[in-house]
Specification:
Blueprint: H1 19-22, H2 31-42, H3 46-65, H4 69-112, H5 128-150
Helix pairs in contact: 2-4, 3-4
């Protein structure tokens, strides 16, 4: 079984606060961040998928029925490229925020869990060889646990 290192950490800012205090308003994110998050949320809806399909159909019909299809196709290509570019950044921003929040939650669990290997707290910034070593160590722990469960 691997040796674990338990380190005492200072209490978190929310320690000792009542649930009402924990829900108190926080500093708002920048407007751009809020807009990108809302765009990411809106793009997940059925209405957004339906609207994208309708716009595509309208442009396709316009191109097929128009004697001059080139302007329709050029407009559609430009619109599709612009939407794709914006969505790449919106999704990247939203995923990065969610990943950072999840990482902080996992770090907090590791920090307060007795016997936890606190070296894992900064694993995302570890060198590649350290990351591989931890992966191998946890593969062995998983294998040992499965073998114990089978017996």
């Amino acid at each position: 079984m691997p040796v674990t290192h338990h380190v005492k950490h200072p209490p978190t800012p929310s320690a000792g606060r009542s649930p009402a205090d924990a829900r108190s308003p926080r500093r708002q994110r920048p407007l751009g961040s809020r807009l990108l998050h809302q765009l990411g949320q809106a793009s997940q809806s059925t209405a957004a998928s339906t609207a994208a399909a309708l716009v595509s159909v309208v442009f396709l019909l316009g191109a097929l029925l128009s004697p001059r299809a080139t302007p329709w196709l050029t407009a559609f290509e430009a619109l599709a490229a612009a939407v794709t570019l914006v969505m790449v950044f919106a999704l990247q921003h939203t995923q990065a925020r969610q990943q950072a929040a999840l990482q902080r939650k996992l770090d907090e669990i590791l920090r307060v869990l007795p016997g936890a290997d606190t070296r894992l707290l900064h694993l995302e910034t570890a060198a590649e060889d350290e990351l591989l070593a931890v992966g191998q160590r946890h593969d062995q722990i998983r294998t040992d646990a499965l073998n114990e469960h089978r017996t």
